[in-house]
Amino acid sequence: MNESMVPLRFRLNGQECRAEVDGADLLIDFIRDRLGLTGTKRSCDMEICGACTVLLDGKAISSCSVFAFEVDGKDLLTIEGLAGRDGLHPLQQAFIECGGFQCGFCTPGMILLAKSLLDENPDPTVEEIREYMDANICRCTGYQMIIESIQRAAKLTKSKGI
Amino acid sequence: MIAPFTLHRPQSLREASSLLSEFKADARVLAGGSELILLLKMGLADVSHIVDIKRIPGLAHLDYDAGSERLRIGPLVTHRTLEKSEVVRNHFPLIVEMEKQLANVRIRNVGTLAGNLSFAEPHADPGTLLVAHNATVTLTSGEGERVLNLEDFFFDYYETVLKNDELLAEITIPKPAENCLGAYLRFCPGERPMVGVALLVEWNDGVCSKLRLVLGCVGPKPLRASDAEEWMVGKSREEIQARADDIGNQAAMMCQPLEDIWGSVEYKKQIVKTLVARAVSSVAQKAAGHE
User: Fold this and answer.
1) ipTM for the predicted complex
2) Is the dihedral of CA B276, B282, B283, B288 positive or negative?
3) Where are the domains of chain B?
């Protein structure tokens, strides 16, 4: 074994997972190139745009600027793990219903960031949504529909009682 | 791609310190990594040893001691933890206000306050506000520790007085006095602030008895606007309110911003003047409300 390799045990989208990474590997490269999960997008590569957002132990982070070894012992959620057996997650459903995406490039990051918001605050005001989602950029500028999608998802979640 | 390095994961501060002193300039401390990883990706830091301190137990404490009225912050405490902390909100509301505006929530989830201060990036918010709060820092090495005022911790652009074998082990912030009112204002057209202004004023019967006015991002490190501070001591809130623009001018004359992508020297001084005037005026108005 290469001395610089780090063994990992973590949960990937709900499944136990083991892997070995180089200390210098970035999380985004591990997710896209090793795990083959290309829903996570690289764009600005400097923690600004949010296209590479994933949830680590429920917290939104920029996978472009975190080392892959940081997932050890943690729970990693990428966009591929969001839909359940019963179908789409309420956020995915709401983004479709409200036209929350145009080109779709920012969407995985937007949806995961929105999930971390709703997990923390299930019934946010428009102002709270704007403040929180300010972290991620949509270059098609469909922000209004994104906000409406999140409000809709909050309603769907409430009515489903989940 | 980041150039390969050897990853060290010490179990104690003493062990971390001995690694740092062994590898000196070739080693860097990793906490959240939100600043360090950007530099590594751009190839701007030549680092062959990374010392990850996240496995060291006991570094994530955030305690308020009611007796000494001090907040003690461990080196692994993130911006987001500070932002959401009830004890910080109750006793240090300006710190919560500042943290809420810092970068974005993804960065606040991983970035630590200690990392931010140790990085000494001049375009940052926390240093400015914490110098106004008269914060101190505890630096530790295998040999022992020393406590410094945060003002003296910063040395130059991206430089602190940390020695090769030292780590920032704790940040301590005294609770502002009951008669203290403050403001933190920033101008932030991009991701990082272009100018930050922090002001804490103690009032006695409507007269300014003590204050700290700190200018951030307009020099190598947070700068106390001592001329403006001296002028304000002993003045009434009415006088201060009436002369807010002059105080702003006086503060702007003291700072030495660099011309960069955010703007020219004149432009930045104008922003300093405006923010200082607004901070002074808002604090004087709040004082009127308190009488």
Assistant:
1) 0.95
2) positive
3) 6-51, 62-174, 181-290
